[in-house]
């Protein structure tokens, strides 16, 4: 007979997965939605499918390992403790989703497990230190890579790919037959179609990568405790992620796709490429990747690079040069435009502040991406340390 405690554990696990769908859909498909490449429902559907494929194929390896590397004694993962860990992960992620900020699922989950490990005196500090170092380094790398692209390559790249959207839709749906068939709309040009396919494909790759790592954040404690088998755990998690993508993810899609910045399609491709490359690199090293923060810093770095194009490095360092560092510097250059050298571009060509990244929204995102994991860590530690029920 299925115990009430196990049912509660599965429900809490699905609650965590639901919030994972809400917090990770924005970073994966926010650039594509912000560039009007796909709609929110299409982004949610792609998120659900790609996430499940990643979870079912590679994710089971991460599920097996997550409960054994951060703690030196896996005996702390009792069913009761697993439910408590999942509860803190879910509540912390819910806080971020309510504020419309896509919090880092990996940071939140690792924080909750670290709280358990600290309370029980079984936390592996070496493993934790390695993870934290990469969490600090990877957003900085994403920021500087994107800044360099924005300052030195973005304008010419935009002239090559010409990613401005046409007036009509990308596709028409032919409903004359039994099965609806999508066809390219007459106003859709080849470069627009190619750019759209690219940015959506990169979003799918990010969703797949999320499945390979983030499914463990929702089900690893239960699977590690032996209370739930691997396959049904992945199915439950995948269903909940999809529901979250169709519901609560709407706010994070707006934050990552339009509130922080109004991204042209060229910029969306750059942000998604830089973020997904870093995520894949970290995954290869076995580090739970925080691509939420990487994507955010990539957006800011790309815009800062474009904003400083009219200024030389010396001007930027001195704080002058005549041209203000505009926050609306991702405006597309004209196709085929003969670009002047760095530092000689007319500052009037850079629009007034307004649509690259909103400083208030960006500050809110960065703040909440640190607050949410802290909530999970502190709550988990205090509970396991002082509540006698868990017996640590």
Automatic annotation (TrEMBL):
Q: Which InterPro entries match?
A: Phos_transporter
Q: Name one GO cellular component term.
A: membrane
For membrane topology, the record states: Multi-pass membrane protein
The membrane-spanning stretches of this chain are: 44-63, 75-99, 132-154, 193-216, 228-248, 260-281, 287-305
Q: Which GO terms describe its biological process?
A: phosphate ion transport
Could you list this entry's UniProt keywords, alphabetically sorted. Membrane, Phosphate transport, Transmembrane, Transmembrane helix, Transport
**Record localization:** Membrane
Known function: Potential transporter for phosphate.
Similarity section: Belongs to the inorganic phosphate transporter (PiT) (TC 2.A.20) family.
Protein's name according to its UniProt entry = Phosphate transporter
């Amino acid at each position: 007979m299925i115990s009430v405690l196990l049912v509660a554990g599965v429900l809490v696990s699905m609650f965590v997965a639901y919030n994972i769908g809400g917090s990770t859909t924005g970073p994966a498909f926010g650039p594509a939605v912000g560039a009007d490449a796909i709609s929110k429902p299409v982004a949610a559907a792609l998120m659900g499918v790609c996430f499940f494929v990643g979870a079912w194929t590679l994710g089971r390896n991460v599920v097996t390992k997550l409960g054994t590397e951060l703690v030196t004694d896996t005996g702390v993962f009792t069913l009761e403790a697993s439910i408590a860990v999942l509860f803190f992960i879910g509540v912390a992620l819910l806080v971020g989703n309510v504020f419309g900020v896509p919090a880092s699922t990996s940071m939140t989950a690792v924080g909750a497990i670290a709280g358990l490990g600290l309370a029980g005196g079984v936390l592996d500090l070496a493993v934790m230190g390695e993870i934290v170092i990469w969490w600090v380094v990877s957003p900085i790398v994403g920021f500087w890579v994107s800044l360099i692209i924005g300052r030195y390559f973005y304008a010419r790249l935009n002239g090559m790919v010409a990613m401005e959207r046409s007036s009509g839709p990308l596709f028409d749906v032919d409903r004359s037959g039994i099965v609806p068939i999508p066809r390219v709309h007459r106003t859709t040009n080849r470069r627009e179609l190619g750019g759209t396919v690219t940015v959506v494909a990169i979003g799918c790759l990010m969703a797949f990568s999320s499945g390979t790592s983030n499914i463990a954040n929702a089900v690893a404690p239960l699977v590690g405790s032996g209370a739930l088998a691997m396959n049904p755990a992945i199915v439950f998690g995948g269903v909940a992620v999809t529901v979250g993508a169709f519901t609560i993810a709407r706010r994070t899609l707006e934050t990552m796709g339009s509130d922080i910045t109004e991204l042209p399609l060229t910029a969306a491709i750059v942000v998604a490429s830089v973020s997904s490359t870093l995520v894949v690199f970290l995954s290869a090293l076995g580090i739970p990747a925080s691509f939420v923060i990487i994507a955010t810093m990539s957006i800011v770095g790309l815009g800062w690079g474009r904003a400083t194009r009219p200024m030389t490095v010396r001007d930027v360092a001195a704080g002058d040069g005549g041209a203000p560092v505009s926050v609306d510097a991702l405006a597309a250059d004209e196709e085929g435009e003969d670009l002047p050298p760095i530092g000689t571009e007319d500052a009037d060509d850079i629009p007034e502040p307004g649509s690259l990244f909103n400083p208030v929204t960006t500050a809110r995102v960065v703040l909440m991406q640190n607050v949410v994991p802290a909530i999970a860590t502190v709550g988990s530690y205090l509970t396991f340390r002082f509540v006698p029920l868990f017996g640590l």
